[in-house]
Description:
The structure holds two protein chains of two kinds. Helix content of chain A is 25%, strand content 34%. Chain A is of the alpha+beta class.
Amino acid sequence: MDQKYIRNFSIIAHIDHGKSTLADRLLEATGTLSQREKTDQFLDKMELEKERGITIKAQSVRLKYKADDGHDYILNLIDTPGHVDFSYEVSRSLSACEGALLVVDASQGVEAQTLANVYLAIDQDLEVFPVLNKVDLPSAEPARVKEEIEEIIGLDASDAIEASAKEGIGVHEILEALVRKIPPPQGDPNGLLKALIFDSWYDSYQGVVILARVVDGKVSKGDKILLMSNRKSYEVTKVGVFSPHPFATPSLHAGEVGFIIASIKVVGDAKVGETITHFHRPAEKALPGFQVVKPMVFSGLYPIDPGDYDDLRDAMEKLQLNDSSFSFEPETSVALGFGFRCGFLGLLHMEIIQERLEREFDVGLITTAPTVVYHVHTTDGQMLRVDSATKLPEEQAIESIEEPFIRASIHLPHEFVGPLLALCEEKRGIQNEIRYLTADRVMVIYELPLNEVVLDFYDRLKSITRGYASLDYDFLDYRPSKLVRLNILINGETVDALSLIVHRDKAAQQGRELTSKMKEFIPRQQYEVAIQAALGNKVIARVNVKALRKDVTAKCYGGDITRKRKLLEKQKEGKKRMKQVGRVEIPQEAFLAILKVKEPKQ
Amino acid sequence: MTGLYLHIPFCLRKCPYCDFFSLAGHSDRISEYVKCLVAHMELFRSSQQDPEPFATVFFGGGTPSLLEPAEVEEILRCADHLWGLTEGVEISLEANPGTLNLAKLEGYWAAGVNRLSLGVQSFHPHFIETLGRLHTLADVENSLSWARQAGYRNIGIDLIFGLPGQTREDWRRDLERALAFGPEHLSLYGLTVEEGTDFACLQSQGKLILPGEEACADMYQDAHVFLRAHGYCHYEISNYARPGFQCRHNLIYWRRQPCLGFGAGAHSFLARSWGERWASPPDLGQYVHSLEQGVDPASQLEIFSRQKAMAETFYLGLRTSVGVCEADFVRLYGAKVREVFPGALERLADNLVFEEGCWRMTYESWLLYDFLIREFL
């Protein structure tokens, strides 16, 4: 098809602003998805995505649309992941498009996440046009939100489309606007092949499936292709498009979006942002913007049952097939035995991986507190990258430590600014800017140590702003910092898996908070349990979990025996989520107690 | 040794802490129910192989003292006729002091009842009221003296501790008052808030504040020290008796010996193979209806494997002061306790003793019984 009848676009929206529902409506309206096939939110494939309402992987789908001008158009909807952890993926998905719909909830207004992605889109010269969703809600304020879009983003919102994806309002107008406003692809159909990988995943039957946008030239079944960053070559076994079900086509031409299968074994070989060209007629230069994404957040994952170690490794290998940004390597803990140190893009990524391991692979896990990568300069002149408190050298061997800082943009209603500033100060933040976007929408920019953010920043932010804030961040740099290892001792023994790297000035307070939080999680046991926090050999906090005094069924006669036993069996089932450390049984949650120190008592 | 349990699921009023199956305000259905009990016994017996006479009979409830002596007699006559009762059979009846008089007690005695278990619960009027009991202190005193007068030489008193607002001193006074009557047997139950009871509801609303774990443990230990000093043996977690007056019926449960249960909500333990537990539905209508159709209302609750039988034998036995006799265990299962539970025994080393050929839990460890026996589940 002639490129002038192709439109490639994505939808930018904050979580819950209705992106997936709108995508479904577009699929329906163009007859791409029949009523019969309609499941809620077709584009969110994974169970977990459905549950959380967040897109984790990018998707793409080809819509055929006969526009009011009488021509048949191909509209390629490229869905983007919806979370700050995946901003690189978002940027690659966007660069496969010429335009984007900015979907804003007509009652909520613009959020920081939306803003970050809109700027990404504008930076890449995408034609962005606003759609106000949920205009059917009684709380909708389209006029105010339009004003906000103009003031905050600087985008003309005078002809913003008012829509309700749920009710099917405005869908036709959106389709027409896509055709009218978004420019067609401008690539050279006869040039040397350049195609951008914006997603890839592993399929157990076909190997790696690549989602790509062909920029110049064409790619056909049987072609020998070259991946330009890693110089690996493969033979294309299949190309095609999703509509929304996959079907094979002979080739993909300049301007088109589709899948490429080429006997690639691991997704790590077909990274997002990579450029595909022909092996025999390679393009001179790769497409811009390729980066290798590095894990930012690390934590230890250990099987609760040591017998599950091999299963856990297999499960992680399987996950890694689809997620090259997740890394793991074996790690041993005195307290927890054999496990893995895993790297994640961010906290959400960590939670998702954890949940998938437990849910899809049925492995009970202990997760240790998340940490970042510190640069440790030793007295003998080395620089160590330390991603776990246990790997921090002895204090006398350390010359200095540097920790990663981020720039966080937080977008919130003005009444929550006070509490937010207090939170950022508590988190050792450095204020950059407070910008009033409108009379009551504020953008606060802070430089923050990533370490503080991975601990409980999100949850605290959510609770102090009652969910009205949104957060986006970029990595800044490494800065020297006074950091120390905080050890936790249970009955006098250091439990390595509970150690943390904290700022010296906050160590005493964190030690107290952590020990008293742990006391809530550790149930009373046969003997008293002492929980201590220590810096080096110096104990800075101590609490005791008193010994269990009485736990006995008083009446146990004929009719009670079976029932009481079942009750005890059920309780014992709950105890399987505990890890025996010495004589003490520590529940799963206690290892993450540091994330919960500011929550109200249980 | 086989026991017979008869469940009498009628009460004048439902106590707010009790989760046993019982109906309040249906006393008019008792005579119909007794006929069903008899029919149930006959039905079961008609298909039973190798019947054994009963060494113990226990009327439990509910409130068995709502039965007329003639009804008790009818049931016992039926049991004797169908299975036989051994010489020296122990026949217990649970009685609510608020439902007794001398004539009734004499009638039960004449029918064959030789052991009374009185649901006193507390001697303190305030706590009697808290527990929603219908009886008065005078009822308790009268019942005990009538019982002696009627001829009972084996009387048990049930008390509850850990009541809302109760102190160690309150509890101590309850024990003293109980001893003043010279009971042969005492059952002392730490109050447990059972799911679905009025107490559970109050507790969830924050309206039932119980003494803490520490206070309850202290009360438990006070009772142990006090009653032993007065010549009672602490023969099971919640039970004390003068020598020779242990409740033989209840020992059957802890020794995992067979016991046939009849009545709505009653459980049976059958000794065939590694043991089976059966139960009749805790539903009066269903129970009556089933028997009218000539169908045994009981259904199988569980059937034991050797492993599960060994575990249950061991942990139920640990509820008693005698414990689990190694020789009996070997005779039953052809394996030594140490071979069957090596890990658990090691982990419970502080809590178990092996003496006089038996595995025993110390009485201090009984306080943690539920926590400790998880090792065997």
